[in-house]
Design a protein that fits this description.
heterodimer, A: 451 residues, alpha+beta, Immunoglobulin-like, Cytochrome Bc1 Complex, Chain D, domain 2, 5-stranded mixed β-sheet, B: mainly alpha
Amino acid sequence: MALAVVLILLVVGSVVFHFWSPWWFPPIASNWGTIDDTIILTFWVTGIVFIAVNLFMAVALIRYRAREGQKAAYEPENKKLELWLTIVTGVGVVAMLAPGLFVWANFVQVPEGAAEFEALGQQWHWSFRLPGKDGVMGTSEIAFVSQQNPFGLTPDDPDAQDDLLIEGDPLHLLIDQPVKMLLRSKDVLHDFAVPQFRVKMDLVPGMVTYAWLTPTAIGRFEILCEELCGIAHHAMRSLVVVDDQASYDAWAETLPTFAETMAAVPGDAAAGEALYPVCGACHGAQGEGIQLLNSPKLSGQEDWYLKRQIINYKQGRRGTHQDDLFGRQMAPMAATLFDEGAIDNVIAYIGTLPDTPAEATVTGDVERGERLYEICGICHGVNGQGNWGVSAPQQAGMSDWYMVTQLKNFQRDIRGGHPHDAFGRQMAAMAKILGDDEAINDVVAYINTLQ
Amino acid sequence: MAYVAIADQVQELHDPTTFIRKYIWSQDHKVIAIQYGITATAVGLLALVLSGLMRLQLGFPDTFSFIDPVNYYQFITMHGMIMVIYLLTALFLGGFGNYLIPLQLGARDMVFPYMNMLSYWIYLLAVLVLVASFFIPGGPTGAGWTLYPPQAILPGTPGADGGILLMLVSLIIFIVAFTMGGLNYVTTVLQARTRGMTLMRMPLTVWGIFTATDLGLLAFPALLVSGVMMTLDRVLGTSFFMPAVVSMGEQLDYAGGSPVLFQHLFWFFGHPEVYIVALPAFGIVSDLLSTHARKNIFGYRMMVWAIVAIGGLSFVVWAHHMYVSGMNPYFGFFFATTTLIIAIPTAIKVYNWTLTLWRGNIHLRVPMLFAIGFIFTFVHGGLTGLFLGNVIVDIPLSDTYFVVGHFHMVMGVAPLMVVFGAIYHWYPKMTGKMFNETLGKIHFWVTFLGTYFIYLPMHYLGFLGVPRRYFALGNTEFLPDSVQSLNASITVSALIVGSVQLIFLYNLISSLFKGKPAGPNPWGATTLEWQTPDTPPTHGNWGPALPGCYRWAYDYSVPGAEWDFLPQNFPPEGATIDSDGIVRSTDGTPA
């Protein structure tokens, strides 16, 4: 009897939970409202079955509970009943399947005139590519992937030259424009998912997969990786911004073409030397870093990392949080480097400075730090040497007090909290793994032992 | 020479005499069943603890410093693999299959007892290799239980050095063990049934286990070859599943392989695997319902054909696990259709279970509570499967917590409900003792309600878009703060359900010593295992003569009969049933 009552309560409770719980799809922002409709339809069909079967069972439990002198009926089969139940079930199945397949046919067929973008995944971040003026995307090959050509585009493919590249920044889409996404991966499986768009698809290395949608709402949405891709799977995020025509055009204007990135000339160290004194005033003449001025060591750090951070400062992605006192000092200084050429030059000069390991100032439990570092080392290298391939800067020999400050900043979203700082966001998610300040000291103390 | 059926052959019983031959190197199917059961339970407890640890991280992130992404992914991977393969498959087939097939068919043992023994020891070896991966540098693999390449064998995934190899080797060993056991079960069912035990008189338990074993024999080879191929990719640098990749900024020497090929092979095994677990559960629960409702199973023939049809269809639905895998999307039409067709025989089984209750005389003893709990859970999990099977509906839900909720309901909680019900049901036969009813009821209520509180909300996390296999959600703009409180409450439920399993184990062990004698047939059941001359049954099961079989397994409450059940060995010419539920000839000798 108690069981029957509980079954009834569970059925009623589930229905109440369904209608009154606050947890449901985020508001849709694409053309795929039909997907939502098929889900609602499936809910009705399955909901009715759920209620009917369980209530029937509850009634049976009450009516036919064991009683003295009662005997069960003997009824091996009832062909007619079984046939009817089969037919009714079949009808229910068709009612769900048929509309579903119609929507699927729509999903499979990309509409004529759809625009295209490519999402390129790697452990653990996203890059994007647009076909450029010619409307055709160039070919690509894994063998071409290098620091200068992270997309692995075929260097002499004419179609590739005007392709627009977006690395680390959000993707923009034009509202009401159907768009086909071409998905490509450099290393392992990933999955391009935007919950508000409803559609998602895996990225598979060795092939190009696709899906399509039409964005229908202006706004900013989160891109998540939804196929397990290793230990930083949860940190593999990006953003997609749906724009009106004017903002979209303005954004597309700013994107570099493949040809431009390939033609970029290396910085000129001699020209950089003239610019460096502004930096050296705080960071030291040899880029050795001055703790009293809260300025970290620069010499020995990887050029691509220094460049990305200066640009982050210049564009307000770093050094704008009100609690980031030292970052806020750096931001106006970065602004004095007026263009990309100047940045390249000064970084080239920093590359010529001697890389003497910074003095150790942080103490902690090195043994525990070594265990904690296992995760850090996957990207930053077992010797803390850094790895451009996963956008991880060098740690060995750099200012340890600075790493402590930055890890704390990352943990508190003081750094990496800006939505457009994709790599910072990724690091913020990873820094939170370390937990308390003691763990930070331990891991940095271990980094001090690395050569 | 005239053909003599195994049941009619004169068999000499070589009763084991030493302790070792009797309990360790035993060839007795009942001892092997219990060995399988204990090993599977032990490794299952490990998997339960792992799930508790992963729930701690999800419910209370940034709280437990000993859980980082590396061991988190190792926990989820090992939890999944152990539960699916090393617990459920081993327990249903190696455990219940071994114990019940010969007894329910009126046989003395499996037809290949020596191979049966080997099967267990090789299974144990597979378990030991698996557990060993916890103790090697780098630890076990954290690739997710699906072990998808390229990620499973590349840096960035825990255990990509040694853990994945031990995992693959352990699976290969497991499949060897399973094949030995499986061939044995199939041959025994086909060849060693007692006189009169036609296929259409077999209890549904045997039908479920028999069909599941057939599925296993056809499906596991796909896992075997994919395991071998991935091992070669990892060790020798072949490129079966490995395309050209840049891993951590480094060009690797692989080229031309297909990660999607692995997924096809994996799910060609993986989907039948769902039914390898589900079909024995379907069979067993049918017998539990019938016995405790004192009513014949409704629509026996339909039930048998449904099991066979589900088994057959389970081989043509595998790619519904791959709707977003990047395979040719046109496959979606085919696999969505086959998948939803499978709902029809499955629904028939559900209807027939509930119709078995209708006009019954229902005794809500502990095994029956679990059987009803199974129906509720299975209906829930089966219906959410209709969302995921219908390709377009799957797209937004794939890789979210909806999937986690669905498969835990349908192939975690539902089969475990049957495992618990079955253990309570046959415990008196296996030990001769009755378990503690009160503890059994506490176990049921906490497990049944607790798991619902765990998994129902997960479906709604899935609608919200919460991805599965995330170490932490971090700052995700579209998720409300309530997600975290929901996760915390799920964790609390999970810990309660996990700890109540200790009551179950305590009940099993303490009842061995303190339980009341149960008698040979405490439930008044009709199947042959309840008619053994000794309880627990001894070596050879039947004493001098095998029982005959004269009727199907569901003669409960037959009109005009003196008793409310007629066991399968109750002869047409009449006999009596004594107060222990044992059939006696009218002159009082054993039937």
